[in-house]
Amino acid sequence: MRSINKFSFITLAMILLMAGTTFGLEASYQTKEESPPAATSEDIQNKWNPSGLVENLMHDLQIVIQKERIATLSEVDKERKATLVYLTQERLAATEDLRSELTRLIETLVSERQATLVEIEAIGDRLVDRSLDSGKQLIDHFLLRLIQLVVVTGVLAAAIIFTVIRIRAKR
Known about the structure:
The protein is an all-alpha fold.
């Protein structure tokens, strides 16, 4: 299918070039009022000889194709440059968005860290206060029990001493 399209295109291009070449020759002779320039036999053979005509047409076709290729490549280059500019702008915008998001996240993390440190300090203060209160209560409890032991021991010692004195006094 593609080779048919190429063949059709080449055939059409050759026909148009032949018509253009022939029209150009006729037009150049018709527009000049003076006599046409003398053509050499070699020019006549090259222009009207089928192989010379085909060579001329092929040369003209190559020039046309070359110009079209250059135009197409320059258009592709322009589009490529425009695409690169657009992509560069998008990349810069995305990079700036990421930087601002990173800055916002860092600020959030710093504030959360500070809040966490304050909370940890408060928890530590409460733990120390509870430990001190517990220590005070333990010491108070220990001293109370010690005083009770001393009092009970003193009462028992007094009772024993009183009993011993009575027993000796009865004897």
